[in-house]
Amino acid sequence: MSSGYTNLDEVTGMGKIVTNTNKDTGEPFVVGVIEGEVFVSDGENKYVIQRIRLEESHCTHDTTRYVYRIGYYTQRTDGRYCFGSQYAPILTPTEFRALIQAAMEKGWLATETE
User: Fold this and answer.
1) Are 20 and 31 in contact (CB under 8 A)?
2) Strand pairing category for 28-41 and 82-87
3) In 3-state terms, what secondary structure has residue 6?
């Protein structure tokens, strides 16, 4: 990430190109561009869901042309700047909804008072 960030909430993936690696060939390829991002921050980590507009060649299974990924950014311990940290696999809207629905059915997303 750029050293131009002064606080964690400024760190963003907006406009950045997302790449992945072809599992058969080992060659990198462009997945798409980050066009949207929502986040919550606890001051030490910024948790994000990124909306990625797919490259035209990837639009065979989902007519929305978007996929989503969850990840987080974290503050360096030396405080100089923030950096992107980890991302989960990329999901289509259908896969993302199914995953959230499965967690809801298990009661994992219920409001807890503990």
Assistant:
1) yes
2) unpaired
3) coil
d(CA 72, CA 61): 27
Digit-coded pLDDT (tens) for 4-45: 677 778 888 899 999 989 899 999 999 999 999 999 988 788
Residue-wise pLDDT for 55-95, tens only, equals 877 666 657 788 899 998 887 776 565 566 678 888 888 89
Q: Please name which of 38, 39, 44 lies closest in space to residue 7, comparing C-alpha atoms.
A: 44
Which amino acid would we find at residue 59?
C
Q: What residues does each domain of the chain span?
A: 8-105
| Bridge partners, 71 (sequence order) | 48, 87
